Batch of 2 targets.
Target 1
Amino acid sequence: HSFKQHDEAPNLALGEGSPHRAGKLRSLCFLRLGEVFKKYTAFDLSPYSERLWKVIKQPILSLPQLTTSTDRAPALLKMLAIMSSHDAQRDILCKESIAIEQSFSCLSKSNSFSIVDTVLSLVDNLVESAIHDRTSVVYGAVVEHIPTLLKHFEIRLHTFGTTTSWKRELSILAQVCDVSKQKDSAELLSGELDSLTMLLLPFLDFKSRSTERDRINILDILESIIPNIQINTATLLFDTLSKLLGPFKTGPGCSDLSLRAKVASSLCTLSK
């Protein structure tokens, strides 16, 4: 009888509270792993990487959905962001396609500063590394997932509009589009690029809060996608850019020479 009681006790312990406790335990594990990765950057993680990805595959698949129900960046997302900030760990991260895909997908799921800041840091780390070494594993991963990244930037702009991080987002998006110019980048869907163009147009307007530096970043983005947008979108963009070269109210309008040169270059590309 006593053995029966002991046998049943574990089953009771795995009742309703168990999933919550298991989730908290996983979060603590991810936090501790992140601390280890951050402290021991020279440690060779590669012998354990296959086992790591196998064990955390399901949490990674659930990551985007998890960010919709919390204001704080999940511990797993923080761990992946830490991995993205160190060379050896970054390579291991970029060899796991699902981890990159799901991390990028978190961008459009929440407007929480903690979550968005963590995702942007991860994206920024990967894109900056890709730009500096176009023969690396990181470059290949970024190129492969550019369509996903642009799609979620576009969804984010449409859903949340101008946010506290919009200037940083535009700067990163400009770098992403710079990578997309490369001949081996993934094919981008015209419809997605049209939507992205339409969402960026208001930021070029004189009435927006954009600085001239912001507008240059936007034009960097648009120049890389102009060859793939449809004629109606190109016509609207041409009209918007033309106004930047003219006066605004009683003032001269766009007076910065770098911006005017960028506008002229974009108009030239549109006219081809």
Note: Residues 205 and 239 are 11 Å apart (CA to CA).
Target 2
Amino acid sequence: TGNIQYLLPLLVAVTAAKTVGNMFNDSIYHIQLHMKKIPFLEPAHGEPQEGSLDCGDIMASEVVTFERFEKVRLVEYALKSTHNGFPIVKLMDDKFGVQRRHFMGMIYRSQILTLLGRRVMYSEDEVENLKNRLVALQAGAEPGTSLDHQDDEVSDEQSDLDAAMRTYFHRHTFYNRTAETGAERVELIGLTEDEREMFIDLGPFMNISPMTVQKETSVWRAFKYFHTMGLRHITVVDEYNSVLGMLTRKDFVKTFEKHH
């Protein structure tokens, strides 16, 4: 009506109603989160407790990891799981001859689906050429420079792929993201047997600076990271930056339910 004289009384009434309602039960949206069993971290869960657990105590140790160049068949199989993020690792031997999964970055489910859907795949010979080029770049790279950003300029194809990854959920049913990234979506891509024998290059699109914690980090501190930064998962590494496990919101919820 354009009449603002009722604005202040309306704000007071809504604030009072919400305050009184919260004294008896949670909001309707909060209740729906629990009804749908969506892992939701309550602020009170982050209160430090005496003798609190470490991240190594609650992490999932069976982590699905990828190397930079992976066969499409293996990637397709991994996408049939419920994982949303996959650490990219480089297999390296330490000074004791023990093979470690050196953490390089993180790639997300929607990014991989975009690459598969657009058939960004390479034959075995093309992968060997790419690896040789990376070795040559490594020989001439400055210390501390990432190999995945050595090109003088980003190609139009990579820019287009990056834009498609960023807008993946904008172009699909926004209220049902699980259906758009689940196993059904993988089947809809329609990969052939020849395509499954090809390789995919995950390096140019991975996040090279994701959040990580060491296994000795307290659960309370890791919870603060999740709650303040809105994280879905954190990679747990050791002192050598090798992947040991993953932390998700479900791990926190299970732990809090067990200890409260």
Note: Residues 90 and 102 are 5 Å apart (CA to CA).
